[in-house]
Queue: 2 jobs
Job 1
Amino acid sequence: VISGAAAVGIGAGLDRVLSNSERSAAAGAVAEPAVPFYGEHQAGIVTPPQSFLSFAAFDLTTSSRRRLRDLLSRWTAASEAITAGREYAPASGQVPADPGEAADIAPARLTVTFGFGPTLFAGLGLAQRRPAALEPLPRFAGDMLETWHSGGDLCVQACADDPQVTFHAIHMLSMAAQSAVQLRWLQHGFRGGPSPAREAGSSRNLLGFKDGTNNIQPTDHGALSRFVWVTEPGWMRGGTYLISRRIQILFSTWDDRRLREQERAIGRRKRSGAPLGARRERDRVDLHATDTHGDPVIPIDAHVRVASSQNNDGQRILRRGYHFSSGATPGPIDRGGHMINAGLFFIAFARDPTRQLIPLLRRVTTRDALTTFTLHTASAVFAIPGGVERGSFVGEELFS
Ligand code: HEM
């Protein structure tokens, strides 16, 4: 690892090998490395999105509640240490508990967020404690799900401004699990931007459009309590639910569409992000506007119309997804060759997925122009317990 001072000396030529934290250090940016682990809500939900994600799902290998409690207690201690930039070093053991690959670069605004999948409750004889809102997701139209990449008893979402820091978090927590769980799937992701997104504004997605414009803002406490934070059952107070969908973008279909058609599929201008018929990104999305022929300015199947809260019973969600890109995948049969295997690892938070996300996903997977250009290949839902107090561990109240 090259030090910040050395980085300044080397200059822009080696920019690509420098981590984000080094880049900020080199640029003399104000250090803002640590996000508090303890609080009313888990971090990583309304935290302004960091640049990188490593998201893991695990399956329990035990039916012992005590072993799960011990695991959650170790995971809490380990996460508290690494999010504060300390090494995880429990007293016992000859083998290092911390593999060490983030030693000089952490914490880079690391957050670690834990969740429980619907299958966890059955496996522990806790079926009656499974919240009604935590239903396994149904299949949606066009789903091409890879089951090995879907579901899971537990999830760990690690986000940071350095990809090695998120990798390390998952690596270390897997080691700390001491075989009480096994890894089910792992997804890495990234978000672009001129600088790490410090504000939850919009950033470009892999279709080239601004994304996040009409999202719930982290400072909008009214919307957060209405649409995101859970109050019941008691052990979930201050928590929420997370839905993930791995959505591959079919670039072979999208890339040769005319700009006008791309913009009509989204319902917004590509460059400015303005809604069709408006001038600026933040202008109101007017779903009633018609053109001189009486046709809707924002087409009937435009993504922003289909996903709008106005067509979803007033329901909103908090989106916090990341792009993924992993190698190449075979292209269309008639063209042969390969295409980029990339897309959106959609993550959304809501206080009741059965009312907010399942109906929305039904619409987005049937009536939306984006169905031509996307393929949903993985799916999962998790209950995200409320925040952790010092001296306690994540999800502790589930066991009380
Ligand atoms: C590859 C898949 C997807 C892409 C590229 C995409 C892209 C976008 C873009 C560019 C916008 C407009 C800017 C904004 O307001 O953020 C948007 C809005 C939105 N998207 Fe998506 N999206 C995808 C999948 C989904 C899915 C699966 C859902 C829901 C289950 C969803 C829900 C929403 C919502 C609720 C809005 C705000 C609509 C409004 O009220 O104006 N998106 N999306």
Job 2
Amino acid sequence: MSTLRSQLEKNGYIIIENIEDADIVIVNTCAVTSFTETKTRKLLLGISSSAPAARILVTGCLAQQKPEELKELPNVQWIVGNLFKNDIVDIINKENGVFHSSLDNVSSESLSLDNVTVVPLENDADGFSRTRFPVKIQEGCNFRCSYCIVPSLRGASRSASGDSIVAVCKKAIDAGYKELVLTGTHIGQFGDSNTESLLDLLNKMVVLDGDFRIRLTSLDPRDINDELLQIIGGHPKICDHLHVSLQSLSGPVLKGMHRPYVNLETLIQKIINFRNTFPYAGLGTDLIVGFPGEKDDHFNETLENVKRIQFSYAHIFRYSIRPQTIAATLPEQVPEIEKTRRSDILRAVIDDSRKKFLQNSKGILKRIIVESENPLRGLTSNYIHVEVQNTECRRNTWLNISVISDNPGRYCLAQPVV
Ligand code: SF4
């Protein structure tokens, strides 16, 4: 979205913070679960009521998947599928329309960062990129998990070149950004077409001059290896934060999901070793409960393995049918009430391990980049959102802190460390 932002600004559009005052609102959508779809519809309805004069452009995966349905929502004037995202400025100069491609016509173009411009920090009204600069290193996915519509919507994996990523990162660091976030559909598949690996890219980035840190977004368990885990946990310029999207820790369920591992126990041991070697590192995951055919035994297997690993947080999803996926046609769909029961049990286990993680983290020196001044808040390298009391500090500056509470709410209390 930072590319779109700069394209809009170059063409004379002004980005404003208050949605009520907007003439045009652009919404980038996701279609990964039915929950995100419901949220998106609510969001679009909310925009049309709080900004009744604004015309809405909807893009992203849901626009790609359900263009005609979205077009019926109030004030939605444009639907722009993923293939046409780079044409958004041209499109909003037209009156209205639906610009999408069919599911068998997704992009296979290589990913170029040529249009990425680095918005100066002081002009940036976008909450996310104020202190963190997202760099899209990869797009699409070569896997075919049975519940996932994403490869149909975004196509096969394509990567930007390592040199172009490094060049953009250098500009972002020079502009004052202190955290670079590597994003993509499946960043572990970075480099598939140009023989560079994610590890190669990280090694190129960490030698750049400047006081910055690199954060990786979600990694697929099939993409992690010992060297990658070592650099994530141990390199001072890389956030000690591993998010590994496991989805389940039961062999039969993973088989049904088309996410086979050669040896599940080896994977679990690898993650436990990471936890033991880097006890203060953030360790998160995504888990789906109630996948078709998930029996009590399977769920309990996942639960026990989750307890063994001791995550610092997890995103827990109740399985929802995504049309046009294999899993949608599977028998033995799990009743909603059972999905809720299982997610509650899993959440309680995660809350417990999060509390232990925060207790362990108490008194450990960490650095935050100040994201807001009043209240003073920021994020540690190991993914703890903190609020620091009785301290003043400018936004986008470093602050040494230590966590003083183990309250597993949104923000943990911290104190400055001089
Ligand atoms: S690896 Fe991720 S993006 Fe790819 S198919 Fe599986 S869930 Fe979807």
